[in-house]
Amino acid sequence: MQNDIKEVLYSEEQIGAKVRELGAKLSADYEGRNPLVICVLKGAFIFMSDLVKTITVPLEIDFMAVSSYGASTKSSGVVKIIKDLDVSVEGRDVLIVEDIIDSGLTLSYLIDVLERRGSNSVTVVTLFDKPARRTVSLEPHYKGFTLPDEFVVGYGLDYAEQYRNLPYIGILKPQVYEK
Ligand code: XMP
Ligand code: MG
Fold this sequence. Notes:
The chain is of the alpha/beta class. Helices cover 23% and strands 28% of the residues. α1 crosses α2. Xanthosine-5'-monophosphate (XMP) binds next to β5, α3 and β8. Its main location: cytoplasm.
């Protein structure tokens, strides 16, 4: 598995420090509120579990799955809800936890859906951002790291469902997906 990685971009320790920093900011900003924290499956599952442990305000969690890249490395532009939330977002302060923003299509669709369902606020925290690839205008409220335009895996992110368990984020060798 490690042999398929061209370069480690951020180590487990660097990611951990950044997650704690984001958690401290969110804890201060959500003081006195009870946010509904939504994990966008599957990629955000590790970030979500690490992040909520660093947030000190009471909160609820829920999960959503939307269609993404499948086994390809490019967005199809088609977003579909595969698993919806269990709870209502009406009147709630919603915090969307994303692994990575690329074109921004997935997230702009999600924000729109959650706003139309009557949420009080919709805020986005993403661990990784590839702003160079944006096709819709979208700026996350909180972000961890800005990445170069390379396909990355690890810390929840996959290629063809593999590599999610790597504790760091790294660039996948192109020969892995060009085979
Ligand atoms: P969009 O283009 O809608 O895509 O912003 C966001 C979703 O695409 C996936 N994605 C990646 N997954 N390595 C991955 O493993 C990457 O480099 C990458 N870029 C985008 C991811 O699921 C994200 O939620
Ligand atoms: Mg994926």
